[in-house]
Amino acid sequence: MKVQCAICDRIDELPDDLPLAKKLRNRPIHTYMCPECHDRIEERTNRRLASGKFIFYKSSRLIENEF
């Protein structure tokens, strides 16, 4: 299965029996990200988390259900 990275537009080939390929085939809302883009985003997110200035906010849906 040919897939295209949503960030850098690189085209990769995934084996058809891979769980990720099945997920992408059956649920078009899911997007593919190449390993290089995934690692780069993960590294930058971890750097922001370590800085102490990055705050995770709860979604409004979770806050409404708590009351």
Automatic annotation (TrEMBL):
<dbReference type="InterPro" id="IPR019241">
    <property type="entry name" value="DUF2197"/>
</dbReference>
<dbReference type="Pfam" id="PF09963">
    <property type="entry name" value="DUF2197"/>
</dbReference>
<protein>
    <submittedName>
        <fullName>Uncharacterized protein YlaI</fullName>
    </submittedName>
</protein>
